[in-house]
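Structure (tokenized):
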């Protein structure tokens, strides 16, 4: 009799297989040998070799599935694995040998008698195999009364089915986790944020080049996301919709395009990126502070901003360590003047002396802390509402 070995690549089918492979009844096995006419020692040994080869291939596929998990498949927002197929379909493709040879094993333990019915439809292997869902006859003899090759074959089949179930359990776990993230927007958004930060870190020079070139960053996905935002969808909801729906190139293009356009909208300059890296939040804070610095009465000597004040301001500004004090002073002077500042910042020598005083703690810590509080208050006044300031500072990401 010819049986249908086809199996749909669905979670339901995986669960059916797990149920079948979990059965270890000796009676099913013995009856299966009889039904499949595996009754000579030569046939038993031949079948044993088939099971051993199948088990080895399945263990190899199990290691690949574990590597997929260990490499962060669930944590990745975009993957190149399942952008065309469902997660279940993709995973079952990765255990192709286990599924195919497992169905052959079941078929070998099906009844080999010809069907008396004239029908074009084939019976499903999983429902016809004695070690599947097919009814079976109890064995008169226990396993220990059979020849040694039969006992070896039984143990090999048990080992094989255990490894098949390990693959299936891991597949079902991954499917469950992916479904969880798709149905819990906050979890999907967390992975979106984490992966976004990695993309930006790995593409800093590319982003800066695009900004400098004023490149056209038209992106269909970016437009679609903006359309969803106009429909009042949150980024959490959008993240859940897109989780594991994009390949890595699509995701990277979207994030880079969005970042370039965001920087362009905010008008962040090359000087500012040199001073604060990609910490947009700090750039905006410093802009707000520098634009209104005269409100703190920074006048030192007549019509000048003193060196000590500027050193404290530089300390508060949290400029990246790779840029020197003179580079920052040039930027501050230009920005301050363009913002309508009334005073003249002193030369670099006076600022360096003030900076040395801070480093040597010749300026008391209390004075430094008081200055920083005044600056934070100024920023609160012109940029961030008092209720949001703490949150905004915590969320500032220096990617």
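Design, position by position:
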């Amino acid at each position: 009799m010819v049986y249908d070995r086809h199996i749909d690549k669905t979670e339901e089918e995986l669960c059916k297989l797990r149920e079948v492979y979990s059965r270890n009844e000796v009676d099913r096995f013995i009856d299966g040998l009889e039904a499949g006419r595996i009754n000579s020692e030569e046939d038993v040994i031949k079948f044993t070799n088939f099971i051993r080869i199948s088990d080895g291939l399945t263990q190899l596929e199990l290691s690949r599935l574990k590597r997929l998990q260990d490499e962060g498949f669930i944590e990745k927002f975009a993957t190149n694995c399942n952008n065309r197929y469902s997660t279940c379909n993709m995973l079952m493709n990765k255990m192709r040998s286990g599924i195919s040879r497992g169905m052959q094993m079941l078929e070998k333990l099906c009844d080999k008698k010809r069907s008396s019915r004239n029908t074009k439809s084939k019976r499903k292997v999983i429902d016809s195999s004695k070690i599947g869902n097919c009814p079976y006859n109890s064995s008169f003899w226990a396993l220990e009364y059979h020849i040694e090759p039969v006992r070896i074959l039984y143990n090999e089949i048990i080992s094989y089915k255990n490894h098949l179930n390990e693959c299936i359990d891991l597949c079902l776990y991954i499917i469950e986790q992916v479904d969880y993230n798709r149905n819990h927007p906050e979890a999907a958004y967390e992975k979106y944020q984490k992966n976004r930060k990695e993309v930006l870190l790995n593409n800093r020079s590319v982003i800066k080049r695009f900004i400098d070139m004023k490149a056209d960053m038209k992106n269909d996905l970016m437009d679609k996301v903006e359309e969803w935002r106009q429909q009042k969808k949150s980024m959490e909801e959008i993240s859940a919709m897109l989780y594991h729906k994009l390949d890595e190139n699509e995701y990277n293009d979207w994030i880079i395009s969005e970042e370039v356009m965001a920087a362009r909208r905010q008008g962040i300059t090359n000087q500012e990126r040199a001073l604060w890296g990609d910490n947009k939040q700090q750039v905006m804070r410093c802009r707000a502070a520098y634009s209104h610095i005269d409100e703190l009465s920074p006048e030192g000597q007549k019509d000048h901003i003193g060196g000590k004040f500027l050193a404290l301001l530089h300390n508060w500004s949290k400029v990246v360590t790779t840029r020197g004090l003179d580079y920052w002073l040039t930027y501050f002077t230009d920005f301050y003047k363009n913002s309508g500042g009334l005073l003249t910042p002193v030369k670099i020598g006076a600022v360096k002396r003030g900076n040395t005083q801070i480093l040597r703690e010749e300026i008391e810590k209390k004075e430094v802390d008081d200055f920083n509080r005044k600056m934070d208050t100024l920023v609160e006044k012109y940029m961030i509402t008092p209720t949001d300031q703490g949150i905004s500072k915590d969320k500032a990401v220096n990617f």
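Reviewer-requested clarification: Confidence is low (pLDDT under 50) at residues 384-399. Strands lie at 3-4, 123-124, 304-305, 344-345.
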